[in-house]
Design goal:
The protein is an alpha+beta fold. Helices cover 19% and strands 27% of the residues. The chain has a six-stranded antiparallel β-sheet. Strand 5 and strand 6 form a beta hairpin.
Length: 132
């Protein structure tokens, strides 16, 4: 987690859960890749990290980088689209995730990706050390 003097941010990860067969839900990961690709700006989009190939049961997508305050909506728009990815199996598992976003004036906030949306709230006190 790093901050810049002009309102930098963030790091976090998204979790895409496994299906009933014990396989990682490739449909959701493919949808995440499409969303990221559609928003590629050849700058901030370089902060996304996705696995080169699947291993074990769960796929993850990560974002880490400093973002100018004017571009925060660029990331939030992607996260909102990702949150709306429907479940692709009978389990009903949707994409879930947690981001901690740090702002030098507003402090750290928590961006929860769950239930088909992005919920933003002040971060828990235990994360205050990130504001130092």
């Amino acid at each position: 987690m790093t901050r810049t003097s002009d309102g930098g941010l963030t790091s976090g990860c998204l979790r895409v859960d496994q299906g009933l067969a014990g396989k990682c839900d490739q449909k959701q990961l493919a949808a995440i890749r499409e969303i990221i690709s559609a928003h590629d700006d050849d700058h901030y989009s370089r902060g996304w990290g996705l696995p080169r190939q699947q291993f074990n049961w769960t796929c993850y997508a990560f974002y880490g980088g400093d973002i100018r305050e004017l571009a925060v909506s660029w990331l939030l728009d992607q996260l909102a689209e990702i949150a709306r990815i429907p479940a692709s199996d009978e389990d009903g598992d949707r994409v879930r995730g947690l981001f901690l976003a740090s702002h030098e004036v507003d402090g750290t906030s928590e961006w929860q990706i769950r239930e088909g949306r992005v919920l933003i709230s002040p971060a828990d006190e235990r994360h205050r050390y990130l504001d130092a």
